[in-house]
Design brief:
Blueprint: E1 3-7, E2 10-13, E3 18-25, E4 34-39, E5 46-51, E6 58-60, E7 68-73, E8 78-83, E9 92-99, E10 114-117, E11 121-126
Parallel strand pairs: 2-11
Antiparallel strand pairs: 1-3, 3-8, 4-5, 4-9, 5-6, 7-8, 9-10, 9-11
């Protein structure tokens, strides 16, 4: 069984930066594709970025493209999200997700592609 824990959330002002981390553990963690999702109050959970098994493919949702950077360190079973130029609309709980597969196809944001989710970390951006 794979478990994931997110850290790094916090409160910042508009224009600030945060770096989220996700550490995965479990004997059957075989470097699958991973993703970050977020859920704002009163809104549906949305995918914001996916990274494939060996980082050969990376995709971003439009609202964060150019501001957020996803990366991973397979030696550490770690996933990261560098968030720059944060805006109040980025306020949400951010979740790390471990995929069933190795890739990030056009359907990467479908929840059914992910087998394990973290408990989330809160990001609050004030104006």
């Amino acid at each position: 069984q794979v478990l994931v824990v997110e850290t790094g959330g916090g409160s910042v002002q508009t224009g600030g930066s945060l770096r989220l981390s996700c550490l995965a553990s479990g004997h059957d963690f075989n470097d699958p594709a991973m993703a970050w999702f977020r859920q704002a109050p009163g809104k549906e959970r949305e995918g914001i970025s996916c990274i494939s098994s060996r980082s050969e493919a990376i995709v971003y949702a439009k609202p964060v493209k150019g501001r957020f950077t996803i990366s991973r360190d397979n030696a550490k079973n770690a996933l990261y999200l560098q968030m720059n130029n944060l805006e109040p609309d980025d306020t949400a709980t951010y979740y790390c997700a471990v995929g069933f597969y190795d890739t990030c196809p056009p359907s990467w944001a479908e929840f059914s592609r992910y087998k394990t989710w973290g408990q989330g970390t809160q990001v609050t951006v004030s104006s």
